[in-house]
Write a structure and sequence with these properties.
With 403 residues, this protein is an alpha+beta fold. The chain has ten helices and 21 strands. It starts with a helix and ends with a helix.
Length: 403
Amino acid sequence: MAEDDRRTNGGESLDIVGATKRFGDKTALAGVHLHAEPGTFLVLLGPSGSGKTTLARCLAGIERLSDGAITIGGRVVAAPGLHLPPERRHLAMVFQDYALWPHMNALDNVAFPLRQVRLGSREARQRAMAMLDSVGLAKLAGRYPNELSGGEQQRVALARALVRGVGLLLFDEPLSNLDADMREQLRLTIATLTRDRGATSVYITHDQAEAFALADRVAVLREGRLAQLGTPEELYHQPANPFVARFTGTCAEVPVQLVGGPVSAQAGAGATSYVEVRLNGHGMVAVTATLPRPLPAGVPVRMFVRPSAVQVVGPGQGQLAARVRDVAFAGRGYEHALASAGGLLFTKVYCEQRWPRGAEVSLRLAPEGCLVLAEPACEDASVGYEAARDGLGALASADVAAS
């Protein structure tokens, strides 16, 4: 029996130290550092060109790092002078375009990885059928990919990735080709099955809502660098910089000036700091806002308003006068676009009541959803890994010497 098949199920730890990848004169990754504990669901979130797909391909062994190191389960798989191929990394990948063998039916596609590790045909088919059943496709085991819908093909691909019980699963935007209803169903399937099996997962997406729904931790990438690593709650309430704040959901950006604070709402390490700010271009209008992190002295600041911070009330009852520009039914209520008297546009503001287009209203801003950040701010959260990088380099040298 092959080495991979003797391993027990369960997630692998993951360490990425100083990961750098260059394509000619273009740097796709610029010294990214990440750590994930076994069983973590880690989402790589960023716009096109941020480096998230390149990082996943380096994890898989499809691309070779230009510099830096990667360890999976304590084993160095990539470092200067060392590059293990994908089949030796104890991982599986789910692709955006399904990547199923067209000449094999669903059962044979799922059983294929087991046959690669020389598991007997009967046992391979039994395990493959059980895995198809777990994704709800046992009745379609005999169908070929061209006889399956996009969602069904992606569930076959998920079953194929899970069937060997590998320690690391990589997902390359697996839901992007599916309609909204199927995306929601398959998102739940991915979250449930991977966590049930304790696998460590790395999932690529540009969709903030998808990232927050799936992740234990989110790594936000920008131009090949790590902008912030944290839980969805940390990214939403304590963004490291304006880029992270924008990419994780704002309905308005407001130039402001500090007029008072900071003041802590409670004592201790978990204290929340609040400041008083005046909205530029809005006369004497001042609001209380949250300070997610300390501000360097003398820097310009900007307030980022989360949609949840905005309450629509009648004229004269709030802090800002506004007019309803648009309204859209959103199932349990309505989403509004509102223009303030000073020219600010607030979008995706939810309200159970429908305010008609053109209505004069006013807005109340909750301090917890109004985040004041320095602009510009630090764009790279990759700090403090020099010792770890040196340690991984030593391990890689030992692996090379032993091979």
